[in-house]
Each structure stands twice: as structure tokens, then as C-alpha cells.
Design goal:
The chain is an alpha+beta fold. The protein has helices spanning 2-13, 16-19, 32-43, 66-80, 116-122, 124-133, 146-180, 183-207, 217-245, 250-276, 285-316, 344-354, 356-373, 392-403, 423-437, 469-487, 498-532, 536-561, 581-611, 614-644, 649-673; strands at residues 20-21, 49-58, 85-89, 105-115, 139-145, 213-214, 379-380, 410-416, 442-449, 455-462, 492-496, 577-578. A hairpin with a 5-residue loop joins β9 and β10.
């Protein structure tokens, strides 16, 4: 049955590319900036075609030199000859504003035949022309526009995610080989993870027929699939070998592992899905796509671990430990349950439980101190600043901001009114323009009236970085002072643009974070209450997981926002933490932390039900799951660490946050706080 499922999944997974779309970064249609964009789309049906701004830097001389003029003419002709370019304008056409004040930079305004939403699809030939022009000595050429920026972002993102997957897969195989000592047994968890990922991608392709999915949903499915798929199968295979080592026959051992480890996997899967469901209630394509994809792959992993894996174990039997490694490989009958007394985990447990109050105070105090830093987190968006320092798009953007007065970006003031040409509205627009002219952050303004005369747009050029503190202060002045004084009682006004979208998204995240936290924590508590039939155990588990996540937040602030150790680890310091990251990290980390916690608590409770001795049960649970959880945690650190070594600061933040939380959870929390 599973072979048929996998064949169907393999055939259907390829359709995922047909149903994924690029998110525009807007979380909710109820936000002011989103409402402004919707009004413009409804009432001004003709959208302007996209533009690329090609910047030529003359390394010697000025724009007036004949050699430099000849280069610009050639570049202009090469650009104009491209299929999707409909016009190139430069300073040679006697157009003002296309030369820097020192005439060492020239701007070539290149019009495309498509709108911004399609620019990324046709920009490749233009980028080839720019790259070729860069090979000419004495000139440096960069370009910036929707198409080039989107292409660079997507290329770096895909490169980072693929690198993370490859590093994670290789690291996982090494760890599994060490844990099992045999190639066949080590390959089973990876096989199960890949099967779960394949099924989840195929199911997502079906779901994508009825709803949009973010273009990076496959990478999220892969990341979560590797995490839970390997965890679940590792736990069941390890329990199977433990049962066989007790002298039980194959079928009895499989049944026993299903009745214990299999049940734990089911509970753990539900706990992970509860945590991931937090992303489903947040408005916006990205969160809902990621939440849905992650939940689908967890479901697939649970069913694969509880149905496909037992079938494979039954077929293989003793052959599971074929291809044993020298020195560390053992026969199946010789694989002990790795929980003999007197080992390192017993010593750690004895030391911690001998001084439980001291252990809790020191470890808990350190984690609480890190969690306290999380309250100083400055949420925002790095925008182009997320790109590496040598990024062509980032360099082009900085040159335009520094050398050209017109700028590339605008803040759009959308005026919704019955009669846009009425004297009152025109007077309000003039008042607004006067305030904008007096504000150093804003440049020239342009007024557009909709054909239906029921909408007016004032576009004001931004004279700086749209996600800087200066931009946020300017937006506050615009919304709270200029718009209010000019249009109060005259019209309904919405402000849009990159700055407005960032501010609105940050506000949206701050609104949803406590709601998601409350829902996930309460649901997780109820689940553990039912499973372990205790009030204290679920309270402790929830608090431990919150501490892990909170400490990860604090380390993000410490490293990225405050810059402590960022250079040492090769990370890019940023003034903000990406606004989507706290909620994303919470959903993923709380689920994975609960994963490990359920594994540990299940073994403790299983032993306690037999003996009634709390301390011995804690020691037994810790040493019997130590190898599994440590191995699983190491694999996750490898996966997430692969993302962290990428070039984009947003993925550095994501990978680092995930990795350190797993390290904290698998060491301080599991080894010290839980036994204490």
C-alpha cells in the first residue's frame, strides 16, 4: 500500500510548482497599507509597467568624457535590443536627474513591457547584459528594480535553503551511523523522512488547487519533515532494538515498540501539530502556507512511522543491522537498551537531583535572564539590508540614495472620496503637498486622479532607507500630523508604501503573538493533561518549553540586534529582528521541544507506573532517551546550522534561533531543569 502511495506521491509532487506563488509581504487585507493598495487596484485598472534602474559608475573621468559616453551608448543599445525592454533613457537624451552631482554616476532608466508582478520572470536577459558590461575595464555597472531585486532574493533564499537541506541530510546520516552502528538501520529514519516529505509535497500540490501557497512551502516541508520524520523513526527503531535485546521475537518486539514508542509518536505528533496550528490563524499567505505544509508533513511522518516503518522492520528483521561499522557496529541481539545504571546520564541526574533547588536557580536564572532580553526585541524588516554587503542590488540602492535626488521609492497617500476634483479635496491635497515639501525626508510629489474621479493618489518620493528609524518617524508625522490636519472631515485617507507596510506588519504581529501563544500553550496543556493524567507535569512541560523559546529570543537580540559575537560567528548585525520570526520560531520550536519532552516524559511515566519510585524513574527515563534525543538534537542543529551560514541576515536569524533553542532544550533543559 505504501509503495502505491509513494508512486502516486512521486507523480503528483512535481505539480507543486504550478500552485505556489510569491508572497507580496502583506500579512492582512485589513491593514491600512493593504486597503490602500486594494483601492488603487480596484479604481485605477492600468498599472504602470516595471522599471529597472541601471547605474553606471565611471572609475575615471566624468560623464562628459568621450570614452564614458561611448560606453553608455553601447550599453543603452544593448538594453534597448532586449525583447521585454520598451525604452532606455539616459543623460545623453538630455533628461535631467540622471546624473549625480559629481557626474561620476549615470542612471539609465529602463522601461519593461510587464508589470512589477511579472518582472522577475523576464529579467534574466537584462541581468546578462549588465554582467557583461561589468567586464569592461574602467566601469562598474549595477541595476535595481523589482525584477532584479526579486531575482537576487529568490536566488539567495533557494541557495541557502538547499544548502541547509544538504548539510542536514549529510549530518543526519553521520549521527545515525554513530547511534545505530549499521548502515541499514541508519538509513531507515532518512528513508522515512524522505517518504513523509514526498507525500506531504504531493498533498500540498492538491491543496494548492483550491488555495494559494507560498513559493517556499516546499523548503518548510523539507525542514520540518527531516526534523520529525527522523525523530519519530529513530525513537521507534531504537525501541524495537531494545525489545529484541530482551530476547523477544520479531513480531512481539514490533508490537511492543508500537504500543509504547508508537503511541508516544502519535501524542508527540499531535503536540507538534498544535504548536504549528498557531501559524494557521494568522492572516497572510506565508504563515498559513508554512503552517499548512508543516502540519501535512507531520501527519505524513506519524503515519509513516506507525505503519510503513513496522512493515519494513518486519521484512528486514535481523537484517536491520546489516553493513555494521567497524568498532561501533553490533549485532541486533547485542544492542542493549543503552540504559544501564552508572552511566554518564545517571551521574548527571544524581548530581542534579542531589541539589535540585540550586540546579533550578542557576540554570533557570540563566534562561530567565536571556528571556528578559527578548522584551527589548526591536521588530521590523531589514528589506534590502538583509542582503549581503557585496550584493549588487544593495550597492545600487545605496548609490541611488546617496547620489540621486529623485530616489526610487515612494510613499503613497490614497484619498478615498466621492469627488476628487472638488475644491475642498484639492485644497487638502495642496496643504498636504506643502507639509511634505517642508519635510526633509520626502522629495517631489505627484498627484494622480482615478478615471472615476473617486480616488486620488499623492506619491511622495522617499529620500532614504524605507525601513530606517528616520522613515518610521517620517511615516508617523505623515499619518498623525500631515494627513490629519489636511483631510480631517474631508476624505478617508490611507497611507501605503514599503515603510507603511513594514509598520503595519509589525503591528499585526504584535497583535497576534499573544493570541497564538495563549492558544498553543492552553491546547498543549490540555493534551498533556489527558495523556499523563497530571496537572503538575503539563505545567512543568509548558514552562520548560517556553523557557527554551524565550532564551532563543534573547540570544537573537544579543547576537543580531546588539551585535555581541555576530562578527565572530560570521553573522550580519541588524538593527531589527525580522517581524515574522518570533511567531515562526515559536511555532516550530515549541513543537520540537514538546517532541523531545513527550519522548522523555513517556519513558519516565512508563517506569514510574512499574516501580512507583520517582527518582529512579527520572534516571531511567533520562538515560534511556539520552542517546535518541541527543542524536535527534544534533541532527536538527546540523539542519538549522546550514540555514544560518547563508548570506541573507533573515535566514541567519532563523537558522541561529532554531539551532540554539534545540541546543538549550537538549542540554540545559533536559539534562538539568527536568531532572531537578
Amino acid at each position: 500500500a505504501w509503495l502505491l502511495i509513494l508512486v502516486a506521491a512521486f507523480m503528483g509532487a512535481g505539480a507543486i510548482g504550478d500552485v505556489t506563488v510569491s508572497d507580496d509581504g502583506q500579512s492582512s487585507s485589513t491593514l491600512e497599507s493593504a486597503q490602500a493598495r486594494a483601492l488603487v487596484a480596484q479604481r485605477i485598472t492600468t498599472e504602470e509597467n516595471s522599471k529597472e534602474y541601471v547605474i553606471v559608475e565611471f572609475e575615471s573621468g566624468t560623464a562628459a568624457d568621450s570614452t564614458n559616453k561611448a560606453f553608455v551608448r553601447t550599453l543603452t543599445a544593448d538594453l534597448a535590443a532586449l525583447e521585454h525592454v520598451e525604452g532606455v533613457v539616459s543623460y545623453l537624451d538630455d533628461v535631467e536627474g540622471l546624473l549625480s552631482s559629481g557626474e561620476t554616476f549615470a542612471l539609465l532608466q529602463t522601461g519593461l513591457t510587464v508589470e512589477d508582478s511579472e518582472a522577475g520572470d523576464i529579467i534574466a536577459p537584462l541581468l546578462v547584459v549588465v554582467e557583461t558590461a561589468n567586464e569592461t575595464a574602467g566601469f562598474r555597472v549595477n541595476t535595481i528594480g523589482q525584477g532584479s531585486v526579486e531575482t537576487e532574493f529568490n536566488h539567495l533564499a533557494e541557495e541557502t535553503l538547499q544548502k541547509g537541506e544538504m548539510i542536514g541530510m549529510g549530518f543526519a546520516l553521520i549521527v545515525l551511523l554513530v547511534v545505530f552502528g549499521a548502515a541499514v538501520a541508519a538509513g531507515l529514519p532518512i528513508l522515512l523522512a524522505i517518504s513523509s516529505i514526498l507525500v506531504a509535497i504531493a498533498l500540498s500540490a492538491v491543496i494548492g488547487r483550491v488555495m494559494d501557497l507560498d513559493q517556499f512551502v516546499v523548503q518548510i516541508i523539507t525542514m520540518i519533515g527531516l526534523a520529525v520524520g527522523i525523530d519519530y523513526s529513530l525513537f521507534i527503531v531504537k525501541r524495537f532494538t531494545e525489545e529484541v535485546s530482551k530476547g523477544r521475537d520479531k513480531i512481539t518486539a514490533i508490537t511492543a515498540s508500537g504500543d509504547t514508542a508508537g503511541r508516544t509518536v502519535m501524542v508527540s505528533g499531535i503536540a507538534v501539530m498544535i504548536a504549528l496550528s498557531g501559524m494557521l490563524i494568522v492572516p497572510g499567505l506565508t504563515f498559513r502556507s508554512f503552517g499548512l505544509g508543516a502540519i501535512v508533513v507531520v501527519i505524513a511522518a506519524v503515519f509513516a512511522a506507525t505503519t510503513l516503518l513496522p512493515a519494513i522492520m518486519s521484512i528486514l528483521g535481523h537484517r536491520m543491522y546489516w553493513l555494521r561499522l567497524p568498532f561501533i557496529g553490533r549485532k541486533l541481539e547485542d544492542v542493549s537498551e543503552d540504559n544501564s545504571e552508572g552511566g554518564v546520564w545517571d551521574k548527571i541526574t544524581d548530581a542534579v537531583t542531589a541539589r535540585p533547588v540550586l540546579s533550578v536557580v542557576i540554570t533557570g536564572g540563566a534562561l530567565l535572564a536571556l528571556t528578559g532580553l527578548a522584551f527589548t526585541m526591536n521588530l521590523g524588516s531589514s528589506g534590502l539590508g538583509s542582503l549581503p554587503d557585496d550584493s549588487p542590488s544593495l550597492r545600487a540602492f545605496n548609490i541611488v540614495n546617496a547620489e540621486f535626488s529623485d530616489g526610487l521609492l515612494t510613499t503613497d497617500i490614497v484619498i478615498d472620496v466621492a469627488d476628487a476634483s472638488s475644491p475642498a479635496v484639492q485644497a487638502a491635497i495642496e496643504s498636504l503637498n506643502a507639509d511634505l515639501a517642508a519635510d526633509s525626508f520626502y522629495g517631489d510629489t505627484k498627484v494622480t486622479i482615478a478615471p472615476s474621479n473617486d480616488l486620488a493618489i499623492v506619491q511622495a518620493v522617499i529620500q532614504g532607507d524605507p525601513v530606517s528609524d528616520e522613515a518610521f518617524e517620517a511615516l508617523s508625522r505623515l499619518r498623525d500630523d500631515y494627513v490629519h490636519s489636511a483631510f480631517d472631515g474631508v476624505a478617508t485617507v490611507y497611507v501605503a508604501g514599503d515603510t507603511a507596510m513594514t509598520v503595519d506588519n509589525v503591528g499585526e504581529m504584535k497583535k497576534w503573538l499573544p493570541i497564538v501563544f495563549g492558544l498553543v500553550l492552553t491546547s498543549s496543556f490540555v493534551l498533556l493533561l489527558v495523556v499523563f493524567r497530571s496537572i503538575v507535569v503539563p505545567i512543568k512541560a509548558v514552562l520548560m518549553n517556553v523557557l527554551s523559546v524565550g532564551a532563543a529570543y534573547g540570544l537573537l537580540v544579543l547576537v543580531f540586534q546588539n551585535g555581541i559575537g555576530a562578527d565572530l560567528m560570521g553573522f550580519k548585525q541588524t538593527p531589527v529582528i525580522e517581524h515574522w520570526l518570533p511567531l515562526f520560531l515559536f511555532s516550530i520550536l515549541f513543537g520540537l521541544s514538546m517532541d523531545y519532552h513527550v519522548f522523555l516524559l513517556s519513558r519516565i511515566k512508563e517506569h514510574y507506573d512499574l516501580t512507583g519510585n520517582n527518582k529512579l524513574s527520572v534516571s531511567f527515563g533520562l538515560r534511556s532517551t539520552a542517546g535518541i534525543i541527543t542524536g535527534a538534537a544534533l541532527i536538527m542543529v546540523g539542519v538549522f546550522g546550514g540555514f544560518a551560514i547563508g548570506d541573507m541576515s533573515m535566514f541567519q536569524q532563523m537558522g541561529f534561533g532554531l539551532a540554539v533553542a534545540v541546543i538549550i532544550d537538549a542540554t540545559l533543559v533536559r539534562s538539568v531543569l527536568v531532572p531537578a
